[in-house]
Amino acid sequence: MIDRSALLSLLVCPACRAPLESFTHCSHCKADYSESDGTPVLIPTTASRKLSFDFPQSRSTNGEQFTDCFSYPPRCGAAGSDKPYHLDLAHLDIFDRLPSGASILEIGCGGGQMRSFLESKQFRYLGIDISKTRVDQRLQLHGGPDLLCDCHFLPFNQHTFDIVYSAGVTEHLACPYLVVQEVARVLKPGGYYLGNVSFLEPWHDDSFFHMSPLGVFELLTQADFEIIHIWPGKGYSGFRAILNMGNKATRPLTFLGDLMYFIYNSGNRLRNLVKRRIHHNSQRGILDAARVAGATDWIARRRLDGSCFAPSTESIPGHA
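Request: output the structure for the sequence above.
Response:
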């Protein structure tokens, strides 16, 4: 777990963004915070922000910018049973490029199951979540979050992290547009935003937004990220997700989802054989996979010049 004094040096008040001198009180806006079994809780329950951004008409349609980044990375798919759950090979490759001592923020860290893996690579890991108990007891054994907060109001200084990582979380955010602006704010110039989001998974755990590749593109474009790759989660179809995440009656039938995906792919291969002489589309394979994907993944980067979308926001702290 991160040293408390080192953690405090990274923090700002999530309500007014003034530097914090303690975990329990902001001397600037007088907000009071708490702790849960020794874990700081920085959730500004009565604060709000106004959010606005420019939306040019050209973003209403699919264009070349999306086509350029809608592609598979050199490696992708589940990183393996010996790696943390949800970790994709493409994201692992980004982690492997980092120098020792790089700082990583995980949004929605659950039990903190990424901590030991990333710290073994000599990275500085910080995991946040909104609750310590919304994951099963097996995951809680990993130590839990370093900090409890609301990622719509990240309590960190700007330009703090080399990577922000978020797996299986974005669908649960009430206002992902605000969160992605917060991510851009706390990333260093050139820092990476890595993640995935539900697409054709069932509605689950009070999820708000399930996103297609175009939805992810719009989300990242709105915050002016340099988008490197957007791709459908490899080896994970909506057919499988619906049965596996349905209920106790459908879970044993998950193999039928895999069978449906096999039939779907077989139909696509037959179509390609018939039409190959007439028309060839280099993106046909990724389009076919994306139509029935359980999730959508991305790799994006804050621009090296440090620029990011500067929203019109207003912090309105109010405390009883």
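Residues 223 and 310 are 8 Å apart (CA to CA).
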